[in-house]
Amino acid sequence: MTARAEQRVSHRRRTARKRAVIAGVSALGITGAAIVTTTMLSTAGAASAWPADTGGKPVSKTVPVSGVYDGGMKKFYGTGALGGDGQDEGQDPIFELADGATLKNVVIGTPAADGVHCKGSCTLQNVWWLDVGEDAASFKGKSSSAQYKVIGGGAKKADDKVLQFNGAGTLTVSGFRVEDFGKLVRSCGNCKTQYKRTIVLKDIDVVAPGKSLVGINTNYGDTATLSQIRIQGDSKKKIKTCTRFQGNNSGKEPKDLGSGPDGKYCRFSASDITYK
Q: How many Å from the N-terminal Cα to the C-terminal Cα in the chain?
């Protein structure tokens, strides 16, 4: 057989194989859009497992972040001056984000010090806390237009608060997982300077034990909107969903005004919370 003839035969074979594949896909009724949709559906919802880190990185001094910081899934942990992991107030954070900064793909190990501080609007994407210290993250912007976004990630082993909201603006937490915790989000109940705070929790996986999902101060106009909340291991429903407080700026313990949806401050219905 000549080289030209061999080329014609090879071309016919490739064409036949290609047609057979196309015919098979058509017969099954599978389209590219359907394949993409299936893939997206399979990854929907908060993460069900904790990620493996890509190596440890000790931090002895707070890491300032402006712009975007991608940690590459390394595990950062405090050492030296940042070697504390207790509940004492006033600890320094592992990361401090400037207004508009993004921190992503980070695992925070132990000691965790005071986790992450946001000085203004910020995004925390795929950030994981293995053993929360004082708080996992604190949001401290002073502008009512500040936007704090926690996208994906998770936290566990928090004796008290996971996300501490001291500043003004809106905090949105989505696709997050929390286990063995005190409070997932708390609007500061007794800060010297108080603000109206808006909190949105959506697509959250909660694993007991835990005390409260969110605490807000109604006298300052705070609101909390909850949706797609999945709670595991709490058959007796001990975890409070949304707790209303009368906050103050004097440092005193805020007064507990009750919990559950009320249509005004705690905005959700029974169908927004599911128990497994």
A: 69
